[in-house]
């Protein structure tokens, strides 16, 4: 069994165990959301990328009626707004964002633009034909990112020369070779590199080899947010920033109550609030927000970069269970993310007190990979919440009647989110049939119990990751 499937099996067992304990204490489980209500807090984005955030639009200052209301101004929300307006230009579409567009994961991530979904990356399911269809759809979506960036006139530093997954052990390398052999027969644009070739590309001899997907790449995440914001507005969507939705009233007509006391009435709703969604009472028993940490160095000189030896400039992540991912910006800053993931009680989305240790670990990991960077300090560090599901699958579709959603990206959403935006737009237009064969459409997540069982389960799962990482 490879690492991913053993990890999945463990998570399912953890989920089942937590659910069993929760069932045994069903009273506490059902009362928990009332005992521990989640706080409506949206901590600011302190990432390096946030320096490129576009000026915020004004907040909503009056009550409003719309055809479609979208909660969340990240990739999912902005791309849904764009595609809904493309499909149905007569519809009034409004996006409500608690802070600025890109305040969530879309403006804080590791910048890797990836094919596939988290649960199928380098991993075949029982139906390889469906895996290939997902590969093709995500490859086509990357082309769409290029097209939207060009059309907006915003250079989001999208480079799709490939991305690498590096292997720490010979066993991982062999598993990678077996995957690639099958994937190439299906027409996927992937290959395996040996140790020497990986060294020539990355300048480090740490790895036994690497998996290359030529269709992947990297981007400046906040500039990509800018692209989607511009595209949505050009298509006619209205975007209100610094407008947190505090409560959703479901019904034939949906009523959203903002924290500032205004009401938005809409015929349909798109939940694009990602790791924060449980605050509104949705997906509380399907998604666990797991914290990830990122650090970035100052811009390195040409001489420093030459010493590092990262000649290919391709972004890469490693194949250990606790993933580390690295990228190189156009102006020669190295960013590294991942490491010791964390869960905060009651879906807390605020930076934990022990974040300092997580950043020190990332710093040591960077020096281990590239010894010539040992004396460098991070210029900026930040954290962000990843919306994890217990089976690593994502889901897009209809929650109920007139409520649509895209969620569960598990750290693999920079590209997938806007494919989901397209799918959401088709759902909203009643044209979802073409997507129904895809496994993530209306996928039902494994049950996550309420607190305190969720905290216990999450700690057990994360401890397992650390031990096996
Ligand atoms: C540290 C980190 C590294 C990552 N690295 C990668 C990577 O390298 N490659 C990759 O493919 N993926 C990566 N991901 C995942 C990827 O960033 C996400 O899957 C993707 O950005 C999700 O986009 P989204 O629009 O669904 O959510 P978000 O970008 O989180 O947007 C949700 C928005 O909703 C708003 N919101 C929430 N609740 C409310 C409310 N009640 N009222 C109003 N607004 C609200 C939030 O403020 C937020 O802006 C990473 C994620 C993190 C956190």
Structural notes for this entry:
This protein is α/β, with parallel strands linked by helices and 469 residues long. It has one domain: FAD/NAD(P)-binding domain (3-Layer(bba) Sandwich). Helices cover 34% and strands 21% of the residues. The protein contains eleven helices and 18 strands. Strands 1, 2, 8, 9, 10, 11, 17 and 18 form an eight-stranded mixed sheet that branches. An eight-stranded mixed sheet has the order 5-6-4-13-14-15-12-16, with helices on both faces. Strand 17 and strand 18 form a beta hairpin. The chain is globular and about 60 Å long. The N terminus is likely disordered. The protein binds flavin-adenine dinucleotide.
Brief summary of the model shown:
Helices cover 34% and strands 21% of the residues. The chain is of the alpha/beta class and 469 residues long. It has one domain (49-435): 3-Layer(bba) Sandwich (FAD/NAD(P)-binding domain), CATH 3.50.50.
Q: What is the fold's blueprint, element by element?
A:
Blueprint: H1 3-24, H2 26-35, E1 64-71, H3 75-87, E2 93-96, E3 112-113, H4 128-152, E4 163-167, H5 170-185, E5 190-193, H6 195-202, E6 209-213, E7 217-218, H7 221-234, E8 238-240, E9 245-249, E10 254-258, E11 263-271, E12 288-296, H8 302-308, E13 316-318, E14 324-328, E15 334-342, H9 355-369, E16 380-388, E17 395-400, E18 403-407, H10 416-428, H11 453-468
Helix pairs in contact: 1-2, 1-11, 3-7, 3-10, 4-7
Bound molecules: flavin-adenine dinucleotide.
């Amino acid at each position: 069994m490879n690492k991913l499937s053993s990890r999945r099996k463990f998570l399912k067992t953890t989920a089942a165990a937590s659910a069993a304990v929760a069932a045994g204490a069903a009273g506490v489980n059902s009362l928990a959301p009332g005992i521990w209500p989640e706080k409506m807090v949206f901590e600011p984005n302190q990432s390096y990328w946030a320096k490129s955030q576009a000026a915020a639009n004004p907040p909503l200052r009056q009550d409003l009626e719309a055809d479609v209301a979208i909660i969340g101004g990240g990739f999912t929300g902005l791309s849904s707004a764009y595609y809904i307006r493309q499909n149905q230009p007569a519809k009034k579409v409004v996006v409500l964002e608690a802070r600025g567009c890109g305040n969530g994961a879309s403006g804080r991530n590791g910048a890797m633009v990836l094919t596939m979904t988290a649960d199928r990356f380098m991993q075949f399911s029982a139906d390889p034909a469906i895996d290939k269809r997902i590969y093709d759809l995500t490859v086509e979506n990357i082309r769409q990112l290029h097209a939207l960036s060009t059309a907006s006139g915003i250079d989001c530093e999208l480079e799709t020369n490939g991305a690498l997954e590096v292997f720490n052990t010979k066993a991982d390398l062999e598993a990678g070779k077996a995957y690639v052999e099958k994937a190439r027969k299906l027409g996927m644009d992937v290959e395996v590199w040996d140790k020497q070739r990986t060294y020539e590309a990355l300048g480090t001899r740490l790895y036994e080899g690497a998996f290359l997907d030529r269709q992947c790449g990297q981007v400046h995440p906040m500039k990509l947010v800018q692209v989607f914001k511009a595209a949505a507005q050009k298509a006619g969507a209205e975007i209100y920033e610094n407008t947190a939705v505090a409560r959703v009233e479901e019904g034939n007509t949906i009523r959203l109550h903002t924290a500032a006391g205004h009401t938005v009435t809409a015929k349909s709703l798109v939940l694009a609030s990602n790791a924060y969604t449980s605050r509104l009472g949705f997906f509380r028993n399907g998604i666990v927000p797991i914290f990830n940490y990122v650090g970035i160095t100052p811009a390195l000189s040409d001489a420093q970069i030459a010493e590092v030896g990262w000649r290919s400039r391709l972004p890469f992540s490693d194949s250990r269970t606790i993933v580390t991912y690295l990228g190189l910006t156009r102006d020669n800053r190295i960013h590294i993310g991942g490491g010791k993931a964390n869960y905060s009680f009651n879906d807390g989305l605020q930076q934990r007190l022990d974040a300092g240790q997580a950043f020190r670990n990332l710093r040591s990991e960077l020096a281990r990979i590239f010894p010539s960077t040992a004396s460098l300090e991070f210029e900026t560090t930040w954290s962000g919440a990843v919306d994890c599901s217990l089976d690593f699958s994502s889901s897009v579709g209809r929650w109920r009647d007139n409520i649509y959603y895209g969620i569960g990206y598990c750290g693999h959403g920079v590209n997938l989110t806007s494919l989901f935006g397209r799918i959401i737009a088709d759902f909203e237009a009643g044209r979802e049939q073409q997507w129904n064969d895809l496994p993530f459409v209306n996928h039902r997540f494994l049950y996550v119990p309420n607190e305190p069982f969720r905290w216990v389960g999450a700690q057990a799962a994360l401890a397992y990751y650390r031990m096996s990482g």
